[in-house]
Amino acid sequence: MQEWDGYWAKDQQAHNRIYDKIAVFYRRYIIKPYLKKYFSKYFLKKLIILHAGCGGGQVEEGIIDSQSVIGLDISVNALTLYRKNHCDSPLILGDISKISIRNESLDGIYNLGVMEHFSEEQINHIFLEFHRILKKNGKIILFWPPRYGTTVIFLKCVHYFFNSLLGKKIQLHPLEPSLIRSKKQVEKIVQLAGFKLKEYNFSLADFYTYAVIVLEKAD
């Protein structure tokens, strides 16, 4: 948890200020319209939705107003930022693999850039927990970066420049051990937890940043 609290309470060194400005621009003008498209397609009416790993909540401004969205994050600093952006949303401080929500009580779940930070074993536990709290036919929308996504490659280059060439010790975000390798990999993971894959999209629409994965509870 300390790692994520540190991420959401970055100091004001020059590299962090630059990274934050780029990230805000990217979220607002590229990722936000893409998320809105999927919300409009799969979350059509007034629903109870969990943002599982909500972070600061900058991307959803103007998108989640028609829904009842619960923000969940393990970082106090992230939830503080989320409260500033979405003052009416209920918040939960906790782990997405152990969610304090009763069985079959949610219509949907979503997150952006979260799943890749867990091991495959942890991801299996997370999906089982998602299955537990979702209603029948509940939907999940995941924005999950693939191994060869543009931002993954860009950040690898940045880290190489600072750490290998300049001898710095800079980590702009927590490690990503589970970047997506293929659609088949996703199908295998989600089927084990009782979900079916409704949509898998890796496209120019977000400049090949995320694989967008839409799941439905199968039973």
Structural features, described:
By secondary structure, the protein is α/β, with parallel strands linked by helices. It has helices at residues 2-7, 14-42, 76-85, 120-133, 150-165, 183-192, and strands at 48-52, 68-73, 91-93, 106-112, 134-144, 195-201, 211-217. A seven-stranded mixed β-sheet has the order 3-2-1-4-5-7-6, sandwiched between helices. The radius of gyration is 17 Å and the shape is globular.
Secondary-structure topology with pairs:
Layout: H1 2-7, H2 14-42, E1 48-52, E2 68-73, H3 76-85, E3 91-93, E4 106-112, H4 120-133, E5 134-144, H5 150-165, H6 183-192, E6 195-201, E7 211-217
Parallel strand pairs: 1-2, 1-4, 2-3, 4-5
Antiparallel strand pairs: 5-7, 6-7
Features of the shown structure:
219 residues; single chain; alpha/beta; 21% strand; Rossmann fold
In short:
Helix content is 39%, strand content 21%.
Find the CATH topology.
Rossmann fold
Order of the strands making up the biggest sheet: 3-2-1-4-5-7-6
Shape: globular
Biggest sheet layout = 7 strands, mixed
Q: What is the CATH C-level name?
A: Alpha Beta
Number of helices: 6
How do the SSEs run, as a string of H and E?
HHEEHEEHEHHEE
CATH homologous superfamily designation: Vaccinia Virus protein VP39
Helix content: 25-40%
SS elements, strand count: 7
The average pLDDT value, as a whole number, equals 89
Share of β-strand residues = 15-25%
Radius of gyration from the alpha-carbon trace, in angstroms: 17 Å
Overall CATH architecture: 3-Layer(aba) Sandwich
Structural class from helices and strands? alpha/beta
Q: Could you give the distance between the termini?
A: 33 Å
Which regions are unreliable across 5 or more consecutive residues at pLDDT < 50?
Answer: none
In total, the number of domains comes to 1
